[in-house]
């Protein structure tokens, strides 16, 4: 029953949401008319209760009419301290594919490596300007022809932009190429847990040997090790041992090695020694291409206008974009209705509202000033030093983009400047965005902060 309920939930809310929120839900018991479901954290519990409580109850009742109440609780001590987003950090597990296949695979794989998501292959990865370099590096390493200059391969970028996808793709490719190559993929968090439990069991030698026996070691979300000095130290030694014997290391993080403060200097230095590839925020074109690929793969007809609308609106990251598309598709399937712009508005109402939230010029000024570490008052000051004028121009640009204010209105809010000044700022920033990916990323980041 529980597995059917889970299946229906997954269908209803889409894989991405399911994975984010409900993957860790376990059935605790069915007692008379009450079902108890456990989640690992209070945060997850509250969220699931609020967002999916009714659905859970409804699906349970459909399975078993005796059920009156679904009680959602947290798992008892030990696991209750875990952070809510561990569902993300932990590599995606087998939910998406048939349980039997997943089990088989888990048995075949050495315990060292976490399961790989079968959907995360090079075939399903859509390449565009923002990720082409990272993609090319990943391909190189997966081909097995990478020079020592690619060791380690360090992939970095914001959440949901495809780092884990690329790592899994490399692992799939390598293991397909040869049975001989042993690949271990794990999150940095898993690395730490393994290390800590080896310490506890006094089996660190086995741990070390096991790790050092692999040909390719991948550690995802290395930022997790910030401030965890003991584990960093262990990782550092593993790293050196592997690289010295010509094994490949692939690491991902949310920042570049030099920006990973809280990671020991000598480790950061070594991390930056190989190939460092940045996965940039998506562009409209890439988002559209991803939607097209996903819809085609799902075998669902989604009108071009709907995809354009989604690509325009849902800019935060690919995961969210994918989630939105999945929701639309699930909805269309459930009600046997085609996907239209109207249903998109209706189904994604909550998501879109967050994006549409009215943003004020004051908010933009405050956020931009904070980001560039200048005073808000400088937004209206007459100073023209670059370190002040540039943020001011960015704020004007964002004001034009994110609010419906006219150029003269915007000018007035920036110390009574003329509308031509605003116009100039908009075109200057547009030009810089096109010319300089780092700058573009910065502006995108600000936009993201302002629109959530
Ligand atoms: P990250 O590890 O950078 O946080 P993920 O690799 O988990 O991000 O990607 C989030 C989701 O977006 C995954 O489902 C992934 O398949 C999808 N995704 C990201 N980038 C792409 C891309 N270029 N093409 C296709 N799917 C993508
Ligand atoms: Mg990831």
From TrEMBL:
Any one Gene Ontology cellular component term annotated for this protein: cytoplasm
Region annotation Domain IV, binds dsDNA: where it falls in the sequence: 333-452
Alphabetized InterPro entries for the sequence: AAA+_ATPase, Chromosome_initiator_DnaA, Chromosome_initiator_DnaA-like, Chromosome_initiator_DnaA_CS, DnaA_C, DnaA_dom, DnaA_N_dom, DnaA_N_sf
Gene3D superfamilies documented for this protein: 1.10.1750.10, 1.10.8.60, 3.30.300.180, P-loop containing nucleotide triphosphate hydrolases
Domain AAA+ ATPase: 149-353
Any GO BP annotation: regulation of DNA replication
One Pfam family recorded for the sequence: Bac_DnaA
Chromosomal replication initiator DnaA C-terminal domain span: 360-429
Region (Domain I, interacts with DnaA modulators): 1-93
Subcellular location field: Cytoplasm
Chief site of localization: cytoplasm
Chain sites annotated for binding ATP: 160, 162-164
Keywords: ATP-binding, Cytoplasm, DNA replication, DNA-binding, Lipid-binding, Nucleotide-binding
UniProt keyword ATP-binding, yes or no: yes
GO molecular function: ATP binding; DNA replication origin binding; lipid binding
Entry's free-text remark on domains: Domain I is involved in oligomerization and binding regulators, domain II is flexibile and of varying length in different bacteria, domain III forms the AAA+ region, while domain IV binds dsDNA.
Subunit structure and binding partners: Oligomerizes as a right-handed, spiral filament on DNA at oriC.
Its job: Plays an essential role in the initiation and regulation of chromosomal replication. ATP-DnaA binds to the origin of replication (oriC) to initiate formation of the DNA replication initiation complex once per cell cycle. Binds the DnaA box (a 9 base pair repeat at the origin) and separates the double-stranded (ds)DNA. Forms a right-handed helical filament on oriC DNA; dsDNA binds to the exterior of the filament while single-stranded (ss)DNA is stabiized in the filament's interior.
Entry's family note: Belongs to the DnaA family.
NCBIfam families: DnaA (TIGR00362)
Protein name: Chromosomal replication initiator protein DnaA
Originating organism: Acidiphilium cryptum (strain JF-5)
This protein's encoding gene: dnaA
